Amino acid sequence: MNVTITKPDATLYNGGAKLVQLPGTGGKFEILENHAPIISSLTKGTLRLVDTDGAEQVFDIRGGVVKSQNNDLIILVQ
């Protein structure tokens, strides 16, 4: 799936991923390929991404919003 992680002043990540783990306001959750469409708010915590090569990247965020549809994931963070 294609993932874009954006802050107001910069793009943190733009590329493929196998798995994205997010700190949702209702608890942590994961998005995998072919996930059902979702829009969710995010809280302060750690965003974990596993890219298509299996490498893990970790981002500390202060909150944000995620939208996923048709294997296109857009994450807006603070």
Architecture overview:
The structure is a single chain. The chain is mainly β. It has one domain (2-77): F0F1 ATP synthase delta/epsilon subunit, N-terminal (ATP Synthase, domain 1). The chain has strands at 2-7, 10-24, 27-32, 38-42, 45-51, 56-61, 64-69, 72-77. Strands 1, 2, 3, 4, 5, 6, 7 and 8 form an eight-stranded mixed beta sheet that branches. The protein contains no helices and eight strands.
List descriptors.
single chain; 78 residues; mainly beta; ATP Synthase, domain 1; eight-stranded mixed beta sheet; 8 strands; globular
Short description:
The protein is an all-beta fold and 78 residues long. The chain has strands at residues 2-7, 10-24, 27-32, 38-42, 45-51, 56-61, 64-69, 72-77.
Radius of gyration: 11 Å
Here the CATH topology equals ATP Synthase, domain 1
How many E strands?
8
Largest sheet: 8 strands, mixed
- The average pLDDT value, as a whole number, equals 96
Estimated helix fraction: under 10%
Count of structural domains: 1
CATH architecture: Sandwich
Topology (SSEs and partners):
Blueprint lengths: L1 E6 L2 E15 L2 E6 L5 E5 L2 E7 L4 E6 L2 E6 L2 E6 L1
Parallel strand pairs: 1-8
Antiparallel strand pairs: 1-2, 2-3, 2-5, 4-7, 5-6, 7-8
